[in-house]
Design a protein that fits this description.
The structure is a single chain. This protein folds into 4 domains: about 150 residues, Beta Polymerase, domain 2 (2-Layer Sandwich); about 80 residues, Orthogonal Bundle (Hydrophobic Seed Protein); about 160 residues, no CATH class; about 55 residues. About 50% of the residues lie in helices and about 10% in strands. It is built from 22 helices and 15 strands. It binds adenosine-5'-triphosphate and magnesium ion. The site of adenosine-5'-triphosphate (ATP) has 11 residues, from helix 7.
């Protein structure tokens, strides 16, 4: 068998192998293919198993149903069914060759074939174009295993043609580069750059999925820096950040490089990493140089919010997540003293959400780590802020209207007319509690409300 290598360490679940054996017992050929083979070879095991087979989807359905497995018709037009064995999900697809492509994404037609090698040839990258079988070993007609060892992403066949067929592959390449820490073969990268214009045909939902996976990858920083033509084709907002010299002693990097480091230093969650990507996007617009030649960016956070809203709105980001990202961008450089009353006031600005406050601490820490080495005091400050937040939470200190020992009814009973005035009074009460002017006790609060109503016209 060509391309055989020691695959004794390949670890595929018995349930997935059971599906493969069932199909082969029925007289067909089946292989594990694609991402699960790639990941098994580098010990990056995840649940997601794909099988390719010479059987039609109806034959797969018949064999697997007879063996007591559940079979779902998830993509029969492309020859795919989903088999569930022992609770494990396996996608099974008939060997196929894709027909001519239309609109830089979808094949006009699919054609089924009896050849696994032909099926592998339609796949995007050599590391994704290997098949593995527990008895027959590794089938690697395009040198995927060598590329996997060398850490290279290389298109199967002619890169130019492959990216012309399907522009989504351009984003998949940078996404895999970030997730695996791989480089992209120069000819493949050239093919990608030649077709970035076609990314406009890819649905924004797919673009967002690939970008987010890229952003969460371990090598996000270098990928953001190394493939500007690709990244900026879908996020043109980043272009003005590239090469912008900040002209301040706080920074050793240009705005984009600083941003890429902040992404790297952020925990790998969509919330903090997206906020990191956009936190300084308003700097190019807000930039001005004073008489001494020093750069300033007053008010850049507000500009960054507008830019992030526009970019992520265009990509149809989930609304609730978008709003949280915008709050982090808005307050990323807010000076917050590590004392309970300032922490509680900030919690108000963050929709009373302690988790969002933690995320803000994460972002501030990452931002500080990406400053010049002698200007990283923010790392310590963000730790103090976090400690202070925990103190507020552990002591169950009031920071939201719902924590007050009185509510709107009490305010009405104290003689305040129904309407917006109720909320205004409660806000004043909460501020008095937060700043320790009044204890959060019912009688004390009612007395405080009476002093307020006496003042009100
Ligand atoms: P992951 O599951 O981590 O995203 P994967 O490689 O399994 O990685 P999938 O999208 O699950 O990616 O696709 C499974 C396989 O199908 C790939 O490994 C590849 O062989 C093939 N493939 C997927 N998308 C494309 C595409 N746009 N062009 C060509 N082949 C593709
Ligand atoms: Mg997969």
């Amino acid at each position: 068998m060509q391309g055989l290598r020691d695959t004794a360490h390949v670890n595929i679940s018995p349930a997935a192998l059971g599906v493969l054996e069932t199909i082969e017992h029925a007289g067909f050929e089946a292989w594990l293919v694609g991402g699960c083979v790639r990941d098994a070879l580098i010990g990056r095991n995840r649940g997601d198993v794909d099988l390719a087979t010479s059987a039609t989807w109806q034959q797969v359905q018949q064999a697997c149903t007879a063996a007591g497995m559940a079979v779902h018709e998830t993509g029969t037009a492309h020859g795919t069914v989903t088999v569930v064995n022992d609770g494990e999900v396996v996608e099974v697809t008939t060997y196929r060759i894709d027909g001519d492509y239309r609109d830089a994404r979808h094949p006009e037609s699919v054609q089924f074939t009896s050849s696994i090698v032909e099926d592998l040839a339609r796949r995007d990258f050599t590391i994704n174009a290997m098949a593995w079988h527990p008895a027959r070993g590794l089938l690697d007609p395009f040198g995927g295993s060598t590329d996997l060892d060398a850490g290279v992403i290389r298109a199967v066949g002619n890169p130019d043609q492959r990216f012309e067929e399907d522009a989504l592959r351009i984003l998949r390449a940078v996404r895999f580069a970030s997730q695996l820490g791989f480089s992209i073969d120069p000819a493949t990268a050239a093919g990608m750059n030649a077709h970035v214009g076609s990314l406009a045909h890819i649905s924004v939902e797919r673009v967002l999925v690939e970008l987010e996976a890229l952003l969460l990858g371990d090598a996000a920083r270098s990928v953001l820096m190394d493939y500007p033509q690709v990244i900026d084709a879908v996020l043109p907002e980043l272009t003005p950040m590239r090469g912008l010299d900040q002209r301040t002693p706080y920074h050793v990097y240009d705005v984009m490089e600083h941003t890429a480091y902040v992404v790297e230093h952020s925990p790998a969650t969509p919330l903090v990493r997206w906020a990191a990507l956009f936190h300084d996007s308003g700097k190019p617009d807000a930039f001005f140089v004073d008489d001494t030649g020093r750069g300033h960016f007053y008010g850049h956070a507000i500009v960054s919010v507008d830019i992030a809203r526009e970019a992520l709105g265009r990509l149809k980001m989930n609304h609730a997540l978008l709003e949280q990202i915008l709050l982090l961008v808005r307050y990323h450089d807010k000076a917050i003293k590590p004392a309970p009353k300032f922490v509680k006031r900030t919690l108000r600005l963050l929709g009373d959400d302690p988790e969002l406050f933690e995320a803000l601490c994460d972002l501030k820490r990452a931002d500080s780590l990406a400053h010049a080495p002698e200007h990283q005091a923010g790392v310590e400050k963000s730790a103090q802020l976090r400690d202070c937040l925990h103190e507020v939470l552990d002591q169950e200190q009031a920071f939201a209207l719902k924590h007050l020992a009185i509510d709107g009814t009490d305010v009405i009973d104290a003689g305040v007319a129904k309407g917006p005035a109720i909320g205004e009074v409660l806000e004043q009460v909460l501020e008095a509690v937060i700043s320790d002017e009044v204890p959060n006790e019912r009688d004390a609060l009612l007395a405080f409300v009476r002093t307020l109503t006496a003042e009100r016209p």
